[in-house]
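Hi P.,

Sorry for the delay on this. The queue was packed all week, but I finally got your sequence through. Input first:
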Amino acid sequence: MDRIGRCRSSILKWKRKADTNTRTKIIRLQGEFEKEVSIRNPSFYFMKKLKIELAEAIREEELYRRQKCREDCLRSGGGWDIQRIRDVIHEEDVELVLNTSFNLSEQDRRIWGFSRNGVQSSGSSILSLASEEAATWLNLQLIPPESSLVITLIAPQTRKWMKPPMGTVKCNVASSWVDSFQNSGSTWILRDSSGVPLAHSRRAFAPITSALEAELQTLWWALEALHDIHVKRVIFEVSSDALMEAMFSPTSPSPLSYGISRILRSLHLFDHCQVVSSHRETNFIALQVAESVTRDQRLQPYMATGGLSWLSSSVTTEALNDGPY
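Then the structure:
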């Protein structure tokens, strides 16, 4: 009997420790995720990793609570612990809860609240339902409805760089991604209606899981930079079919939904904005700068006025193109 008692005592201590660790882990992961989201250039790879760990921690917590609820109910003879219900449930809802029947032998069902016959199964699929509700909220709150879009998708029509209309600037955006273990390179180049470079920037980002994530991160970085220098009317030129498809199908489930939605939100802040899908030849200069980061390990970030001296001849050649946009 002493051995059984010691075993029970050890199990109870382990349960208390596991319970505390799980809740502490959830709080820690939530804090890390909120901190990462709040910075200017968050890592999509790190955010994805945190969400996976957070989902697993919530699942473990749910399993623990489900088992604890089952044990408590069995210990009390299969009915509600009236005193505990009165301690934790609002007074107006106590009678409603006490009058609700449940069946511990039933398999969990996907229900939220009470079913038509007033039966609530123990441990309903809280995590799945919460995930679905979060996805719905994301689509409704973070992603602008299609009817309000002011950005335009324009298919590539020429292999030459074209000047933007008078009163509008063009921003060529490009990224370079090698693999998930190396830094990616990003750049943007801003030119006016005469083809004259106004400003440009280049930087490296920490390793990321895919080329698409690198492209999304680069576009977000470029958007924030142009907002910082108070650009109001702009045409963004990119050369990635995957990026355009992801941006203009924002309601489809994706681990990148948050990143896409914030890009769309940021695009809406411009007075006029177009996103142009171009051939790689059209985006040649920006691609060259981005590839210099991964090829030559030019990892020092910078932003400067004007153009790039080592590509000045290419910039001048493109500016001589007088064709209509």
